[in-house]
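Protein Entry — a single chain follows
Fields — amino acid sequence, structure tokens
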Amino acid sequence: MTSKAAGAATKAMVVAGVMSGTSADGVDVAICRVSLGRSGVAPVKVLGHSKFAYGKKLRAMVLAAASGQKMTAAKLATLSWKLGEEYAACVEKTAKQFKLSPQLVAVHGQTIFHDADEGMTWQIGESAVIAERLQLPVVSDFRPADMAAGGQGAPLVPMLDWHLFCHATKNRLLLNLGGIANVTALPADCDVKDAMAFDTGPANMVIDAVMQRLFGKEYDSSGRTAAKGMALTEVVKKMSAMKYLQAKPPKSCGREEFGKEFVDKLIALCEKAGATKEDIVATATGLTVSTIVEAYGKFCWPHLGQIAPGAKATEMLIAGGGAKNKTLMRGLTEKFAALGVKVGTTESAGLAVEAKEAAAFALLGWLTWHGLPGNVPSATGAKRAVVLGKVSYGG
């Protein structure tokens, strides 16, 4: 970093981070103050957070595109522009609600395709529309730069995890339960290059799909449906044998691995075993718990032990919409307690569970604006740290 860039980077900025994840349920906006603190650590303070649900028609279009349904170029372009308008409106409403004036907007966009093995990804939501509507510069399209450098393009949240949650004496696991579950393993007092992070497998995506298919509901509110059923251990075991779940990090996934075909197979196996509808939801929930615990044992724990063998304790902080699923949280808490890992949420550290990913992109946008790298090569597998994203200038 040049002295000029370093000087500029020390100035605090108010950045609106915008996230719409693989669950395709809506948009999270976190307006944050970001600056450069001591030892290169960037404090990120959430000043205001709002969540907006997609309208039925827009969500249907997003799901159709993300599920690989045939769509004309015109329809994909229309969807991208509509999402741009949606993101701009969400930022505007959040800024008005909290009486804030963002100086920069950082937009993840809506993923409609991600194939890390082939080095391709596509997030849509026209940034020029956002920049024009808000008259603000917009950083978008974060993942391709990492993939061009040989990385998976994901996960990108580890940069925030390290800046906010690295502890001097404790190992920390940062688990995000969105459509996909991803974990960051931070050895005690580690450098950012020692962070391990990867997608463990499905979280809300499969549970939501089962609920929609069997109950006509968008999701399992508080995990109440799963609590009425019983997870089928043999089905969980069979579904956990898939290649992705056994592969070593770095790795990332999405609807390509855990979409319709995966859900079809899960439901078919459960029905063959005589499961009730509630049992099938419980099995989908149990699968999420099982794959996270297995990933910890296979990959995270050896890494933590190697980098920080003298750590006093290991704790897990959970964020994402799945943190509100009591059945899912109970399963994780019980399984990890048996492994000596205390489970809580990011709320205890002052970060709302549904604001974390949007806050992460606020930080990444700030880094891009100052010409600073935003990826963590040890997490994505990239050959080097690179500046992420593309800038659309408004105003």
User: Anything to note?
Assistant: DSSP finds 16 helices and 13 strands in the chain. Residues 182 and 199 are 4 Å apart (CA to CA). The chain has two domains: 3-154+372-377+385-392, 158-349. Residues 1-9 have pLDDT under 50 and may be disordered.
